[in-house]
């Protein structure tokens, strides 16, 4: 009996591997069919995540409208996509110059976006500006700039494109947000405030547009790290606070987030929380045991202020 079990184990593992491979291939093909010929608008397409989303959706046969605030970098992205694309299966991306922090021009740019194909099927709100520092040292001007880029810019663009989706009774809006839309982290007051505001807006919008068959999705990773930067080792585990925030700031790779955005579009998910267990636990602790969460955060701030920072 034991020998038979040992012989069957490799076959069982091989069978499971085969089923997983088949599932992944079916999912990949399904993803392509879902976005094929769809008009997909990606903001801040020149960022790490924006580039990966452009790659994933372009490969899937979407008609891309790539938005960014630097024309040369948009052109470089365009060249990179075209160089590896199959012209018979993909569409040539269209480029639109857009700086979401300049809210005075967003409405006009939205018209330019609609003029590209006459409609928008999927809007991926990806742009984000970060700032870190004590609240009393962040100027009100910088607070406003963060709110413009992370909140007012995306909602102005969304409001401008939404009537087109409502009139056609189809569409999907994806907000790439952050864990800080769920809980606040010290020394990131402006950024957390903008992410809370954005999440609140799109949560409300989801209920408003459901009757028009417009889907609103939010994807909230911890942080989106750069391609080649991994967390340093250091001695973070010296305290619970440092262990917690080291886990919190691991972040997700742009490739992983882009693939999750594609899955979110394919499955029409309403909310996705992309994080390892430590940040997920923090969100639940913040909700169920707020006093405990506040105490841990406060201890961490005291510890940080009592230890001089290098440099």
Give me the count of strands.
7
Strand order of the largest sheet: 3-2-1-4-5-6-7
SSE-based structural type: alpha/beta
Rg to the nearest angstrom? Answer: 22 Å
Fraction in beta strands = 5-15%
Q: Report low-confidence residues grouped into runs of 5 or more.
A: 229-238, 306-311
Shape, per Cα inertia axes: globular
What kind of sheet is the major sheet? 7 strands, parallel
* Residues in helices, as a percent range: 55-70%
Distance between the amino and carboxyl termini: 65 Å
Secondary-structure element pattern, one letter each:
HEHEHEHEHEHEHHEHH
Total DSSP helices:
10
Oligomer: single chain
Mean pLDDT: 84
Q: Which helices and strands appear, and what pairs or packs with what?
A:
Elements: H1 2-35, E1 39-42, H2 48-59, E2 63-68, H3 71-84, E3 94-97, H4 106-117, E4 122-125, H5 140-168, E5 171-176, H6 189-209, E6 214-221, H7 240-248, H8 254-267, E7 271-274, H9 277-288, H10 290-306
Parallel strand pairs: 1-2, 1-4, 2-3, 4-5, 5-6, 6-7
Helix pairs in contact: 1-8, 2-8, 4-5, 5-6, 9-10
């Amino acid at each position: 009996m034991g020998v038979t079990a040992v012989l069957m184990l490799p076959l069982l593992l091989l069978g499971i591997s085969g089923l997983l491979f088949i599932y992944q291939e079916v999912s990949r093909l399904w993803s392509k069919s879902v976005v094929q010929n769809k008009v997909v608008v990606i903001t801040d397409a020149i960022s790490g995540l924006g580039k990966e989303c452009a790659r994933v959706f372009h490969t899937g046969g979407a008609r891309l409208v790539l938005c960014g605030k630097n024309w040369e970098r948009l052109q470089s992205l365009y060249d990179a996509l075209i160089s590896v694309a199959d012209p018979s299966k993909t569409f040539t991306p269209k480029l639109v110059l857009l700086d979401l922090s300049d809210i005075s021009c967003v409405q006009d740019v939205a018209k330019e976006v609609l003029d590209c194909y006459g409609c928008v099927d999927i809007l991926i709100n990806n742009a984000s500006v970060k700032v870190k520092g004590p609240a009393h040292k962040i100027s009100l001007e910088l607070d406003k700039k963060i709110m413009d880029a992370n909140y007012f810019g995306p909602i102005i663009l969304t409001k401008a494109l939404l009537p087109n989706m409502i009139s056609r009774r189809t569409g999907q809006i994806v907000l790439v947000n952050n864990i800080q839309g769920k809980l606040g982290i010290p020394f990131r007051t402006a950024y957390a405030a903008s992410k809370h505001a954005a999440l609140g807006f799109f949560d409300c919008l989801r209920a408003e547009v459901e009757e028009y068959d417009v889907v609103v999705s939010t994807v909230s990773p911890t942080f989106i790290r750069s391609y080649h930067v991994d967390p340093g080792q250091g001695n973070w585990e010296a305290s619970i606070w440092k262990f917690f925030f080291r886990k919190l700031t691991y972040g997700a790779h742009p490739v992983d987030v882009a693939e999750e955005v594609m899955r979110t579009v394919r499955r029409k998910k309403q909310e996705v929380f992309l994080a390892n267990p430590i940040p997920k636990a923090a969100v639940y602790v913040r909700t169920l045991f707020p006093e405990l969460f506040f105490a841990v955060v406060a201890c961490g701030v005291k510890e940080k202020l009592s230890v001089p920072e290098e440099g």
